[in-house]
Amino acid sequence: MNIVLFEEFPPQNLIPNGDYRAHHIKKILKLGIGDKFKVGVINGPSGMGTVVSITKEGISFDFQKEAEGDALFDLTLLIAQVRPICMKRILRDAVMIGVGKIVTFTSDTTERSYAESKLWSTGEYYKYMVDGAMQSGATGMGELLLEDDLKSVLNKYSWAGKVVLDVGEGNPSLAAIEELPTPSVLAIGPERGWSEAERGLFRANGFQFYSLGNRILRSETASASALMLLLGRLGYL
After folding, report:
1. 102 contacts: CB under 8 Å, gap ≥ 6
2. Could you give the CA distance from residue 132 to residue 95 in angstroms, rounded to a whole number?
3. Alpha carbon separation from 88 to 51, 59, 76, 111, 135 (Å, rounded)
4. Is residue 91 exposed (0-12), middle (13-18) or buried (19+ Cβ within 10 Å)?
5. Among 156, 162, 143, 175, CA closest to 72
6. What are the helix and strand counts (H, E) for the chain?
């Protein structure tokens, strides 16, 4: 946790002792009265917090704003539903990297139960997104959108630069990409790969096919690697 984030600052800037952020400040950072820590509001201002008091009610802090907010990359991660334990890592890493939007959907080769897991039904996914933002040290957190299938996604959203990863002979390496107009999208499939029907939809909608080599990667490995590689090649990093 490289920044303490809130949806909005708590009343009187008092973090209750039962809050995991209070535990982090006291037990992990080991801060005392007068010590400073980085703090901010999700998709809002950030700055330095100074511990004013530590009582049985919680930790009070003063806030000195230093920045209005942190910009996100004009890049969407289009990710097929995968096992919830893998999706947790994907969400955390994508937010940590700074993508502007995450769109997930059920692929033809995805288990239908994944979209009905408690990760989505209970809102648990939000915790992993916030964790990614706090790890990044920035306040920016991309938007998450849940869709039914690839066809509905392509009918609903539009991008200028369109890249899809696919393991297959003849697909150039993503490392060879030189330019991509914005807004951009990077599509990554489930571990069983895209169906032929989905490949046809991508082609019909002007996506460029690339690969990360001939080895089949886990979706969370492919997403983090491809996002960083693409952002680096496009000069964002």
Report:
1. 76, 77, 79, 91, 94, 95, 142, 143, 144, 145
2. 5
3. 32, 30, 17, 16, 14
4. buried
5. 143
6. 7, 11
Q: Which amino acid is at 128?
A: Y
104 and 184 Cβ atoms separated by less than 8 Å:
no
Q: Give the pLDDT of residue 233.
A: 83
Name the DSSP letter for residue 136.
Answer: H
Q: What are 179-193's pLDDT values in tens digits?
A: 888 999 999 999 888
Question: What are the structural domains of the chain?
Answer: 4-67 (2.40.240.20), 73-233 (3.40.1280.10)
* CB neighbourhood size of 168 (10 A): 12
| Per-residue tokens: 68 | 């209005």
* Backbone phi and psi for residue 197, each to the nearest 5 degrees, phi listed first: -65, -40
Reported as type and span, the H/E element at residue 50 is strand 46-54
- Higher per-residue pLDDT: 233 or 84: 84
* Residue located via tokens 């002979």: 169
Nearest of 135, 129, 136, 138 to residue 24 by alpha carbon? 135
